[in-house]
Amino acid sequence: MVSRRALVTEGPDVGAVNGNWAQVGARCVDVTDLNPAPTPEEVFRYFQQLPLPQLSTVVQPPGGTVLVGLPTILYTEAPTQQVFTVDIRGFAVVITAVAETFTWHTGDGGAVVTSDGPGAAYPDQTVTYDYTSGSYTTYLTVTWGGTFTVDGSAPLEVAGTTTTDGPAIQLTAVEARAVLTNPYD
User: Fold this and answer.
1) 113 in Cβ contact with 151 (< 8 Å)
2) CA 120 – CA 165 distance, rounded (Å)
3) How far apart are CA 135 and CA 124, in angstroms?
4) pLDDT grade for 135, boundaries at 50, 70 and 90
């Protein structure tokens, strides 16, 4: 019969061997199965909780008044990529969130304008909307996707997307009227 020693866990001899001991065998044990790397689905749960920016809508012409018959330019200037490092069960996970879709809610009866980029200011505008006379509340919804690495691994896709809504802005669309004048009056 082989006897084993036990370690003392209390008193002045903590860590000392107690009893007879004989080595029975030795082997390495792979503990990877006990703590596997985070899955894309697990990372997605963290991804949904990231403090992603709420991108603001910028309108041209500026000032909150736009003209009927003249396209209103919509864009955002905020960063469209964010990098976060999170600890998931002891793994260093680097998540790169990227704005994939931009949806401007025009406030005009549910009309939306969607693009795959953040738009641009005049003269390079890529996102415009033609308003009719009235007052409108507009805001931007951004759909974020991403990739992640675990302890420096190759990038993997996050298993879903999440959205953020930017602050609302008020617009008034007015109609410009031509007025004929006689310079000789």
Assistant:
1) no
2) 19
3) 26
4) very high
- The Cα 104–Cα 161 span in angstroms is 18
Distance CA 166, CA 138 (A): 9
Share the mean pLDDT of the chain. Answer: 88
Per-residue pLDDT tens digits for 58-72:
999 999 999 999 999
Residue in the block written with tokens 């969130």: 97
Q: Which two tokens stand for residue 49?
A: 């909780």
Question: pTM to 2 decimals?
Answer: 0.77
Whole-angstrom distance, CA of residue 147 vs CA of residue 157: 4
DSSP letter string, 103-145: EEE-SSTT-EEEESS----TTS---EE-PPSEEEEEEEEEEEE
Half-sphere CA count of 100, side-chain side, radius 13 A: 12
Q: In what order do the strands lie in the sheet with 72-75?
A: 58-60, 72-75, 128-129
Distance between CA atoms of residues 48 and 41, nearest Å: 11
First to last CA, the chain: 124
